[in-house]
Write a structure and sequence with these properties.
Blueprint: H1 3-20, E1 32-38, H2 42-58, E2 62-63, H3 66-74, H4 76-82, H5 86-96, E3 100-108, E4 112-113, E5 119-131, E6 136-148, H6 151-171
Parallel strand pairs: 1-2, 1-3
Antiparallel strand pairs: 3-5, 4-5, 5-6
Helix pairs in contact: 2-6, 4-5
Length: 172
């Protein structure tokens, strides 16, 4: 191979790496972010929302204040937004003034006693990020698996692990 061919091949490889070597996540739009969660209990949903909010704030993003977020949660459109209904998200964003909505749906299995007499908890978390215009920006499902001395501890730790992994993947 001559120098020109090598240089051309290297440039093509660099372009492919830029296209396919990234996480595939489009940057979050500027403005505030509303975080809605749904799970098997209020406590578990609150834990997921807290982790997502904390990590978003740590990365410099604006998050909808708690009072406004509570009003969003009480609205009928919030249930539809959690299901990914773009019209509901557009309506909520116009009414409450956020630019992005992150919805998180949590499933937590019943912790099982393992051979070490500890409990293993497994959880899955489906994350969707949609713009105020109803456009899907990001979607993923992650799993969390953790061990605890009690079923409640194992479940809580697995939920926290899933939430931390979800936000880490979403923001990379």
């Amino acid at each position: 191979m001559n120098k020109g061919t090598k240089l051309c091949a290297l440039a093509v490889m660099a372009c492919l790496l830029c296209l396919f070597g990234t996480s595939g996540f489009a940057e979050l739009p500027k403005g505030s972010i509303a975080v809605l969660t749904k799970g098997p209990s209020v406590q578990h949903s609150a834990a997921v929302a807290s982790i997502l909010t904390r990590e978003l704030l740590a990365k410099g993003h604006k998050v909808v204040d708690p009072k406004r977020l509570e009003a969003i949660r009480r609205s009928k459109a919030a249930a539809l937004a959690l299901e990914g209904n773009a019209d509901a998200i557009i309506k909520l964003s116009k009414q409450y003034g956020f630019s992005t909505m992150i919805t998180a749906q949590l499933q937590a299995g019943k912790p099982v006693l393992n051979e070490f007499q500890l409990y293993t908890g497994t959880s899955s978390l489906a994350i969707m990020v949609m713009s105020s215009g109803g456009q899907m920006i990001y979607a993923d499902t992650v799993m969390g698996k953790q061990v605890g001395y009690t079923p409640d501890e194992a479940a809580q730790k697995s939920i926290e692990a899933a939430a931390k992994l979800a936000v880490q993947k979403m923001l990379q």
